Amino acid sequence: MKTILTTLLLASATLGSVQAQGVQLSVDEYQDMKLHGTLPAEYNVTYSTLPPPKVQAVNQAKGGGGGTGGNCNCWIDPDDTYTLALQPNDDGSSAQITLPFQFDLYGDLYNTCYVNNNGNVSFQTAFGTYSSQAFPNSNFKMVAPFWADVDTRNGGGTVMYKLTPNALYVNWVDVGYYNQQTDKLNSFQLIISDGTNTDVGLGSTVSFCYREMEWTTGSASQGVNGFGGVPATVGANRGNGIDYIQFGRFDHAGTDYDGPFGANDGISWLDNKNFVFTTAVSTQNIPPIASGTSLCDTVNICVNELVNLDVNFLSPEPDQLTTASYSIVPPLNAVITETNTSPANTVNLNLQFIPLVSDTGYHVITYTATDDGLPPLTSTVSVVFRVFYTPAPPPVITGDTIACAGQGVLLTATGGYEHYVWANGFNGETVLVGPGTYYVEASTGACILVSNSIVVHEAPSPSPVIDGVMFNCGGDPATLFTTETYDGYAWSNGSQDSTISVGTGTYSVTVTNEFGCEGTSAPVNVLSANTPTAFFTGDPGGDVFPGTTVIYTDHSNGNGGNIVNWSWSTDSLGGGSGTEFTLTFDTPGTYPITLTVTTADGCTHAYTYTQIVIPTEIIIPNVFSPNGDGHNDALVFEGAQYYPNTALSVFNRWGQEVFTSTNYKNTWRPSKDTPDGTYYYVLKLNTGKEFTGHVTLLR
C-alpha cells in the first residue's frame, strides 16, 4: 500500500491551522524536544499516515438503540469494516479524510476532516496539540470526545475508523497516555453524521460513547501518573469563540461531577456514558442533553425485580438551569422512589421501584427537561419498558445481624437462582460482610429479583486485661482474673473459669462478650518462686570474751533459687554485705546479728544469731532492795549471767539456806516474808572460780 506523507504543523494551542513555516523537525527530534519542554513556537513535523478507507456501501453500524438517540449499548466494536487511522504514534494525525456527507458544525459545512491521535476530529487542518483548552476557543475547529495527550506507542492501543454514506465512526480503543504509559487506559468513541444516521439518532449529528476511562493527563501537560496538570476537554468547538458545547474538563480520578463549567471533574464519571447532540444549529441556546444507561428503546424487567432508572440532563450553556420531570403511562402500582436534583446545570433524575404482579405489561416512561434559556427549550425522551411476571419468589436473606468489629458475619440468600449480586458488589449465595445494609439481586432467566434488606450492626470486640498477683514467694500459686466480667472465658491453660490459680508460666485468655464477640488479652508472666533459707556460723563459735574478732560465714540455701544478695545487720555495730561478715567485740553483752538473703526471683529470708560476749570480771553487790520499785530489786552479780551453770547459795545469819540455784541468772527477788538484814552467799562459776561474801537486804 502506498504511503502518503502529510506535513503537520504541531504548534502551540494558539495556532489554528497548519502553516508551511517554522522549524522542520523529524519525529525523533520532535519527541526529544517535547520530552524536555524545548519545542519552538512554530515547527513542522512529518508523520507517516495511512490511506483513507472505502466508504461502506450500507450503514453496517451495530447497536445504538435505533431512534432513541443511541443512549443504550452505544459502543460499537471495531470489526473488519474499520480501518486503522494511525500507526502507533504520539500527537499524529490521519491523512485528510473525505466525508461522503456534509457535517454541520454550528453553520460551517465540512466534507473533509482529520482524525487526530489526541482524542478529536478536526476540520480544515490537523491538530497535534496535546494540551487541551476549554471551549469556546477561537483557534480549534474540532469535535472532541476526549481531547488529551493520547500516546499509542508501546502497546498503547489503537485508533480506528470507518465511513458510511451518512456517518464517520472513530474508536480510540484502550489508548495510553504520554510518555508511552499503559498502566491506565481509555476507550471512547465518536460518531459524526448528517443527522440521518440511526446510531447517532435521527436529527442529531454527534454521539460520544465511553467505556472504561482511567487517565486524564500526560506528563508533557504537567500530569503525574496520568492525573493533574492540564485537564482533558470533552465537547465541540466551532472555532469562532462563540459557538460550542462543553460537557466538562477532567483532571483526576473519581466520579465527582459538578457540571460542564464548574470545577474540574473525576474521569470515572464518564464511564459508560453516552452524549447525543446536534451541532446543526447556529445559536448558543441548545436544549438540555440527555444521557444515561436507561434510555433504551424497550427495557424488559420482571415482577419483584429492583429497577434503577437513571438519566442525566446537561445544560450546555453556563449558568443555565434545567428542571427535569417524568411521567409513566399507564401508571405503576409499585411505589416509586424519586431522586431529582432539579433545578441545576446538570440534573440527575433517578427512579427506583419493584414492579408488582399488577404492573405486568407495557409502560411508557417519558422524561422531560426544560432549561431557563431565552427562549426556554425542552428535551423529551420516551422509553418503553415491559414488566414480565415470573413465578419465582424473591430471595430471602438470613444471617447474623451483629458483626464483631474487624470480623464480619455471613449472610446467605435462599438458593435456586442462576446468579446473585449483593449490594456490596459480591457474588454468590453467601457473602462475608461488615456493618451496613444489604440486599441481593438474584437472576432467574431474564428476571432479576430483589431480596429483603438486612441491617448488620457492629458490636465492639472485648479487650480483656488480666489482673492478679503475678509474683509470689514460697511456691504458692498465683490467682489470675480479668478486670471486667465476660460471658465466656478460654484460658491458655484450658480453664474456662473466670478465675484461675496457676504456677510459674505465661498465660492469656480469650473472652466472649454478650454479643458473642471474642477478644484475646495480652499475655502475662507469672512467677511463683521458693523462699530461701538464711543461715550462717561464726568463727570462733559460741560465746566469746571482749576483744575477740568473730568471722561470720553464710551457709544459706536458695531452695532452687539463686541467692544474689546478702545483707548483714546489728543493732549497734553496723552492717555489711557479701557472704562473710567480721565483727570485733570490745564490750561484754548480747548482740543480735541478722543475715537477710535475696534470690534472683526477689524472694527473701532472714536469720538472727545472738552473739554473747562474756565479761572477765564479776561485780559483787553489797546491798539490794526488793521493794518492787524497779530499781535494784534482784540480787545481781553483774557478769555472772553470761556463765552457764553458775551455782548460787544464800544463807541467813544463822546459817540457814534461804535460796539456791544451779544456773543463776541474776533473778532472785526475796519475798516480803524474807526479813531485811545481812545474808551470806557462795557463787561458783562453771570455770571453778568461787566468790563468797555478804550482802545487805534493805527494803
What is the 3D shape? elongated
Structural class category:
mainly beta
DSSP E strands, number: 55
What Rg do the Cα atoms give? 53 Å
Major sheet summary line: 7 strands, antiparallel
Number of self-contained structural domains: 6
Q: Compute the average pLDDT.
A: 88
Output the number of helix runs.
Answer: 1
| Straight-line distance between termini | 152 Å
Name the poorly predicted regions: 1-20, 59-71
Percent helix, as a range, is under 10%
Taken as a percent bin, the fraction of beta residues is 35-45%
Overall description:
The strands form 14 sheets. Strands 4, 9, 10, 11, 12, 13 and 17 form a 7-stranded antiparallel sheet that branches. Strands 5-6-7-8-14-15-16 form a 7-stranded mixed sheet, with no helix packed on it. Strands 51-55-54-52-53 form a 5-stranded mixed sheet, with no helix packed on it. By secondary structure, the protein is mostly beta strands. The protein starts with a strand and ends with a strand. The longest helix has 10 residues. The chain folds into 6 domains: 226 residues, no CATH class; 100 residues, Immunoglobulins (Immunoglobulin-like, Sandwich); 57 residues, no CATH class; 64 residues, no CATH class; 78 residues, Immunoglobulin-like; 75 residues, Immunoglobulin-like (Sandwich), CATH 2.60.40. A hairpin with a 5-residue loop joins β52 and β53. 1% of the residues lie in helices and 44% in strands.
